[in-house]
Amino acid sequence: MTTLTAAEFARHVAGLAVGRPRLMVGIAGAPGVGKSTLAASTEAALAPDAVVLPMDGFHLPQAQLVALGRRDRMGAPDTFDLDAFIATLEDVRFSGGLTLAPGFNRGIEEPVPDALAIPPEKRIVLVEGNYLLHDRDGWERVAPLLDLVGFVETDDELRRERLIARHIAFGKTRDAARAWVLGPDEANARLVAATAPRAHLRVDLGLDAGR
């Protein structure tokens, strides 16, 4: 499978977008690997044609996670509103009009309804999330809605340290952050890693400095 740098990925996407009314690009990978970083750099490189649609906005609300007994593994596939995510992807791909999508407030770990607007003039939609290539429990409906999926990779130890720092920044103690990263986050990372062979290409964020 071809492995690209972030800059090469942006150029590849730009080439694929030529002549298309809309290109749906998935950016998949484990928690903390740098998906949001790649999405943001690609959006900037392809401005004003690109927009980012993160999967994070489709987290189930905290109260619902508690009621379902899933709060202690938030981030697992069954802690997202998959049907709403699919409906949004379909609207973005097929409607030809304005699509509103939820955002996500990391400070309170809650989705924010209608926080993102995806207008029809944004021809390149960068869909960023962990489970874009997951093929069980209904998630197999996602990949057919995407024209290209890049799987993001970086050093695992660096990825874990980034996650710990992120959790600390949003209020966890270092011990609690480390426990979450080595527990729920790592379980999710293993699940995501198994989906990598279904990607069209890989993006190694560690390569950019050397090219």
Specify Rg, calculated over alpha carbons.
17 Å
**What is the count of helical runs?**
6
Distance between the termini: 19 Å
Q: Describe the biggest sheet?
A: 6 strands, parallel
- At the third CATH level, what is the topology name? Rossmann fold
Average per-residue pLDDT, rounded, comes to 94
How many beta-strand segments? Answer: 8
Classify the secondary structure makeup into a structural class. Answer: alpha/beta
Would you state the CATH class? Alpha Beta
SSE map:
Elements: E1 3-4, H1 6-17, E2 23-28, H2 35-45, E3 50-54, H3 62-68, H4 82-94, E4 99-105, E5 110-118, E6 124-129, E7 148-153, H5 156-169, H6 174-193, E8 201-204
Parallel strand pairs: 1-8, 2-6, 2-7, 3-6, 7-8
Antiparallel strand pairs: 4-5
Helix pairs in contact: 1-2, 5-6
The gist of it:
The chain has 211 residues and is an alpha/beta fold. Helix content is 36%, strand content 21%.
Keywords, please?
211 residues; alpha/beta; Rossmann fold; six-stranded parallel sheet; two-stranded antiparallel sheet; 6 helices; 8 strands; globular
Explain this structure to me?
By secondary structure, the protein is of the alpha/beta class. The chain is built from 6 helices and 8 strands; from the N terminus they run βαβαβααββββααβ. It has helices at 6-17, 35-45, 62-68, 82-94, 156-169, 174-193; strands at 3-4, 23-28, 50-54, 99-105, 110-118, 124-129, 148-153, 201-204. A hairpin with a 4-residue loop joins strand 4 and strand 5. Helix 1 packs across helix 2 (35-45) and helix 5 crosses helix 6 (174-193). The longest helix has 20 residues, at 174-193. The mean pLDDT is 94.
